[in-house]
Amino acid sequence: MRNKITFIILLVGCQFIFGQNEVPKVSLSFTNVPFTEVLQDIEGQTDLSFFYLEDWVSDLRVSGIFDDVSVTTVLDDLLKQTVINYHIMDDGRIFLLRNSQIYTSLPDDFFGKENEEIPAGQRNTDEYLEPAGPVFVQTDQNTVRTMETVRIGRADGNSDRSSFTLQGRAINQTNGQPIPDLAILVEGGNAGTSTDTNGYYSLKLSAGEHIIQTRGLGIQDSRTRIILYGDGSHDFQLNESVESLDEVVVEGNRNRNVEAVTTGVTVIDVEGIKNIPQVLGERDILKAAVALPGITTAGEGASGFNVRGGRTDQNLILLDNGVVYNPAHFFGIFSTINPFTTGSAEIYKGNIPAEFGGRLSSVFDIKSKDANTEKFSGEASIGPVTGNLVLETPIIKDKSALMVGGRATYSDWILGALDDERLSNSSASFYDIMAKYNHTINTNNQIKATAYYSYDDFSITSDSIYDYSNRLFSLGWDHKFSEKTKGNLILSNSEYQFGIEFDGQANDDFDLGYKNNETELKYKIKYLYNNKHTLDFGLSSKYYIVDPGRKDPMGPDSDVASLSIPREQGLESALFISDEYEVNDKLLINLGLRYSFYAALGEAEQRIYQDNAPKNEETLEETRQFDKNEVIETYGGPELRLSARYFIQPDFSVKASLNNAFQYIHTLSNNTTVSPTDTWKLSDINIKPQEAYQATLGFYKNFDGSIYELSLEGYYKKQKNLLDYKVGAQLLLNETIEAEVIQGDGKAYGVEFLIKKNEGRLNGWLGYTYSRSFVKLDSEFNEERINNGEFFPSNYDKPHDISLVANYKFTRRFSASANFVYQTGRPVTFPIGSFALGNSEYVFYSDRNKFRIPDYYRLDISFQMEGNHKIKKFAHSFWSFSIYNVLGRNNPYSVFFVTEEGDIKAYQSSIFSIPVPTITYNFKF
Question: Checking phi first, is residue 333 left (phi over 0); if not, alpha (psi -120 to 50) or beta?
Fold first, then answer.
């Protein structure tokens, strides 16, 4: 019964279609049985005979109930989710075919336009693809012998589609991890794509034979012969490259800056940042981001980021979809993200995808890498102040694995070694730990779970011990419904808290604590509608709990009275959809819409003030009580996410975007930069949500086969309801906080320039940003008006920002790097006079942010030495020798004023005012 399938071709010319006769009917009932048993049952009830190859259907199990239906109905139902077709001959023989069909005739226009030769390079264009027709493959025996041949999809004689979708995933066969930014190219044509951060790809191709090439950094090149009959998937299992690379090349990402539709996207090369000199030798993803245009900080050692003139609280920092509220360790010198556990990092500072919301300026979308499902592996580093260790182990080989990583500091010796008696009793330390579990259930289902915790504590020349922590958990389920549709369900929870323990000389010892918590549930779907439209849509809901603070006496002798600020709660929900529409070969549009809705919830009390009057005790009209989960106030509205890309030339494009956003949570701070004791405030009756509108226009050009990248991008941003503070405001543990703050407008604009060299012994980039950021706090009441109600520079307004990063590779093992930074000094408020009142002298200050501290510049250098490139050894090592601030520039972090012996004196504080040498040893096994 089982014959070679090639026998089918010989029958085509001498048989008629069985459809001329009536197809027999059968009655069947079965549950999870081998498909071959069903075929035997059909043969037992009819005169039909089946011919097929056992290997094609050996793993196929089926279920069904059929009552007096035709055999074709049974076969159509059982085979619809497979790549098996069938052909019925008039003598009762049924041949099963994999992927292909038997055709009795060819379409009239199968050979193309009459008397016109089709150029080889154009055979995959739409002009010659309608209808799809039968697939003929011209076999080259040399090709068959030298590369794998894979048949994809199922031929459909009734389909009039001209192209089909090939999608799948690229996996590192050595460790089971996805391969991001892998170039997937079609040989002999212009088609191609690259894998995303999770290793997935999608490619539109014509039916027929294609040679697919893959290229990537550290991955062996491959060629695969794909015969495409219809939509289908293929996963590339690739090996790591065993050869040393002369230069850093990321083929899959080479043209992304020109081709992608989204403006203002920064992709951090997680592996490449090891060549950027960093303070104290700690490889740092977020610090590397600051070396790129449009992202800056208020000063050296400052935590938080200012993106395109935005405030530090306007950035959504995500680690595996969980929010990190304070991204800084050790006074902002290190970030809380462990580079050894990180797989990818993308920063959206222009057009933010519709799935993200709740922040105005940017999204830092950081993903950890998947654990190694093949073998036990790890990575570690030892530096002067930190140690880092990450271990990965399979749980079920090729299916699931666990990664555990941790960092800790042993930095107290630095404070003790400083020539300053005031620091002799100081201490500062931190640690962070992370665990990730990834499990592939089957080809259609995968789950990932991440747990993270970081902790800092410090005491600097005071009687107070400060501590703060971040905690998050996330659980994700990826499900593939079909070749066109993928879903992702995400549950995450994040918590940030800080505390102060004060142990003074008097009976005023206290313990202070603050905490905020959020839980989010998100469901999103990616749907490939056709070769022109790709849809992303879903919904999300986030529940906030903010405990604004409590203060308790510490010890039995403390005279401090207990104080607790009532809890705040809020619910932020959103619906979102976006369509990436390929209008033609040159124009690509991404149109997204997000509708967000926020409700402030009880149990709470809200103070109601007189209209058209400043908020204070004299204008307070009433205090309203709200029950548990009762809606206090609602806000919301549509958020547009529109971007477009147009090819001027294949390597030269222009992009534009327009978007707006709402933010319902704010920081309360009267510090110049982010502080561990900054608190968060939810919008309510008295405090409105922040809003922003941003327009962007950019030009992107690649040269010499994408060896050089050039980009020029400009933006303009308007903001509303920015939260600021009144002069002398008390923000911590204040029950009437709405009377201490004011809301105003902001505007920011700038131009970002980047030139980057990707290959060669010398590579790196030069970035320049000209930007301005202004705030306007105006009111008809003097106590709520700053600088006469006019626009003034924000605390982080630094017009000129230059970054130069250069790497030079002497040999495969030895390289050197340099990093130079220049920034305009940030604005400050200076005292401009003094006066005597009674027996005391007082000062009065200039308009807010009227002056600037000195400009900032710094040069860092490093030298890297890699271990030998033998494959069979326990670990691959890497030494880094660096000097931070080679010039010994005493860059001011802040300027402050004190009165000494009747005179007002100015002082400046610096973080690193001398060169800081570092030696770090890294090894990977």
Answer: alpha
From 275, 269, 367, 372, select the one nearest 321 (Cα to Cα). 367
Take residue 496 and report the two structure tokens written for it.
């940030």
pLDDT bracket for residue 241 (50, 70, 90)? low
Q: What is the DSSP annotation of 3-44?
A: --TTHHHHHGGG--BGGGSPPPEEEEEEEEEEHHHHHHHHHH
The answer to whether residues 593 and 528 belong to one domain is yes
Same domain assignment for residues 524 and 622: yes
Same domain, 277 and 223: no
Burial of 25 from C-beta contacts in 10 A (0-12 / 13-18 / 19+): middle
**87-125 pLDDT, tens digit each:** 888 888 888 888 777 776 666 655 554 444 444 444 443
442 burial (CB, 10 Å; 0-12 / 13-18 / 19+) is exposed
Q: What distance in Å separates the CA atoms of residue 583 and residue 646, rounded to the nearest whole number?
A: 10
| Cβ pair 359, 663 in contact under 8 A | yes
Mean pLDDT, residues 74-98 taken together? 86
Q: What is the mean pLDDT of the chain?
A: 83
This prediction's pTM = 0.76
Mark whether 807 and 840 lie in a shared domain: yes
Identify the CATH number of the domain in which residue 33 sits: 3.55.50.30
CA 546 vs. chain centroid, Å, equals: 26
Distance of alpha carbon 919 from its chain centroid, rounded?
31
User: Residue length, the chain?
Assistant: 925
Distance CA 638, CA 577 (A): 12
Q: What CATH number did the domain enclosing 854 receive?
A: 2.40.170.20
Residue 365: closest CA among 311, 289, 303: 289
Number of structural domains in the chain: 3
Q: For residue range 483-510, what is the model confidence (pLDDT) as tens digits?
A: 788 999 999 999 999 998 888 777 888 8
Assess if residue 254 is contained within a domain. Answer: no
pLDDT, position 278: 67
* Element containing residue 537 per DSSP (H, E): strand 533-553
More confident residue, 261 or 601: 601
pLDDT digit string (tens) for 866-876? 876 555 566 67
Q: Give 701-745 as a DSSP string.
A: EEETTTTEEEEEEEEEEEEEEEEEE-TT---TT-TTGGGTEEEEE
Residue 250, domain member (yes or no)? no
- 212 within 8 A of 226, measured Cβ to Cβ: yes
Do residues 214 and 273 share a domain?
A: no
Q: Which domain holds residue 175?
A: 120-243
CATH code of 226's domain: 2.60.40.1120
Q: How far is CA 121 from the centre of its chain?
A: 37
Q: What is the dihedral sign for C-alpha 157, 161, 163, 164?
A: negative
Radius of gyration for the alpha carbons in the chain, expressed in angstroms and rounded: 32
Please tell me whether residues 194 and 66 are part of one structural domain: no
- Domain co-membership, 150 together with 80: no
pLDDT at 1: 42
- Residue 16 CB-density burial (10 A; 0-12 exposed, 13-18 middle, 19+ buried): exposed
d(CA 415, CA 431): 18
Output the 3-class SS for 856-896.
EEEEEEEEEEECCCCCCCCCEEEEEEEEECCCCCCCCCEEE
